[in-house]
Design a protein that fits this description.
18 helices
Length: 454
């Protein structure tokens, strides 16, 4: 464990893939993707999502990768180095701010997953839909319990972060990501064995193009950014720990494939189970804490042992996904403070962890006893959520594309993407065109849609 200012690197290619994929894979894959898919017509939405990942998600991810690896610095300093004294440097600071705001409320939701692990392990998830609704409402508005669970998750994140890049983040990812896949596959297998499960599979895999509207395209693009952790500073920060021989294009494709595969597996886990008991999996944010406990109760209740295992495995899976994302968000702020204030990693991580607990406590209390504390008419928790998802993420992606496409020297971009000519990338000019024109245009539409102007 090092407390020096010396920067680390990921030790292996597998470590790069698993750690960066772990930073991208989170509640957006296991929770948000299934219910957004359910609300937008199933397979038709997934096809559009694939297109968005390929045309927009991967190019913007590559932009963040090349900025981070070239600068070998935290996100703010990385943009500053390439900006050469111009205002473009503020795009990097926006990424750091976005990560700091997200982890403030995301840690609260992540803490909820730990509470549900305990509830599953102790056999508390039994009852009617009203019982599950009352259980969640009572817990989420409690002034103490959510804060304790949030602080516990922050402590787990802190433990990984202070151990550094190779001994902390990489080692943790090599344990958590395979475990996540194993749990997902087990749960998919259980779900597919239920009566009527094929209706859910058909909904997920058979496109209904009549459901496609302009809103579907915007939702798919927004989900691709949310799911891939674009414009949060995470990808740029992790790329700063890549070695010079890391193939950025190959890494971007591999991470996108893993991320999308996890989201599809989550759909194969949730849709068949939900439809086998006549529940439509489009119930929004309440899906994982209210709807799914009811689904597990109905689907597996005749075999209590199976219901116990499935419920516990699901919430363990959810907590792992939440933890990997919290680690990447925490690292954005830790690396920023460590390098900009020139303090040791342990001190920087401790400061970030304390602030996460303080801000998370305020966000949690705003859902209960402090519901009077509002910003622009919204509880503080909802304000952080709305501001990051609807304003900062689209703007961060938009300005990153303009920065790379219109400002940064194309020779530098070519050198980074091709590893100084050692890797073939025949679509370089297409990449530049997409980043200059296609991505900014579509991201702008998403932004205008999110704020209600489209």
């Amino acid at each position: 464990m090092s407390n020096s200012l010396e920067r680390g690197n990921f030790g292996t290619k597998l470590g790069v893939i698993l750690a960066t994929a772990g930073g991208a894979v989170g509640l957006g894959n296991v929770w948000r993707f299934p219910y957004v898919t359910g609300q937008n017509g199933g397979a038709a939405f997934i096809l559009i999502y694939f297109i968005c990942v390929l045309i927009m998600g991967i190019p913007v991810m590559l932009c963040e990768f090349l900025i981070g690896r070239h600068a070998q610095s935290n996100t703010a300093r990385a943009y500053t180095k390439l900006a050469n004294g111009t205002p473009w440097k503020w795009v990097g600071y926006m990424g750091v701010l976005t990560a700091a705001l997200i982890i403030g409320y995301y840690g609260v939701v992540s803490g909820w997953t730990l509470q549900y692990v305990l509830a599953s392990a102790t056999g508390q998830l039994h009852g009617t839909p009203d019982d599950f609704r009352a259980l969640f409402s009572e817990f989420s508005t409690n002034p103490i319990k959510p804060i304790i669970w949030m602080a516990l998750l922050v402590g787990m994140t802190h433990y990984v972060i202070v151990h550094g890049i190779e001994d902390g983040i990489e080692k943790a990812s090599k344990i958590m990501m395979p475990l996540l896949f194993i749990l997902l596959l087990v749960l998919v297998g259980c779900s597919l064995m239920l009566p009527g499960a094929m209706d859910g599979v058909e909904f997920l895999l058979k496109p209904d193009f009549s459901k496609i509207t302009g809103k579907t395209f915007l939702e798919a693009l927004g989900q691709s950014f949310f799911s891939l952790s674009i414009a949060m500073g995470c990808l740029c920060t992790y790329a700063s720990y890549f070695k010079r021989e890391t193939n950025l294009v190959g890494t971007a494709f591999q991470i996108s494939i893993i991320d999308t595969f996890v989201a599809i597996l989550a759909g194969l886990m949730i849709f068949p189970a939900a439809m086998s008991v006549g529940v439509q999996p489009d119930s929004g944010p309440s899906l994982i804490f209210i709807t799914l406990p009811n689904v597990f109760e109905q689907a597996f209740g005749s075999v209590p042992v199976v219901q116990y295992v499935v419920s516990l495995a699901f919430y363990v899976l959810l907590s792992i996904a939440a933890l990997t994302s919290n680690i990447s968000l925490h690292e954005v702020s830790t690396s920023f403070l460590s390098e900009e204030l020139r303090i040791g990693r342990r001190k920087a991580a401790t400061f970030v962890s304390v602030m996460c607990v303080v801000v998370g406590a305020v966000c949690s209390l705003s859902l209960g006893d402090w519901d009077w504390a509002r910003l622009f008419g919204m509880p503080i928790f909802d304000f952080f959520d709305w501001t990051t998802a609807n304003i900062l993420l689209p703007l961060g992606g938009f300005f990153t594309c303009l920065f790379i496409g219109w400002y940064v020297e194309h020779k530098l971009i070519h050198d980074e993407i091709t590893n100084w000519g050692t890797s073939n990338y025949h679509f370089f000019h297409l990449f530049v065109f997409v980043v200059k024109f296609v991505c900014p245009l579509f991201i702008l539409f998403v932004f205008l849609h999110q704020i209600g102007w489209v």
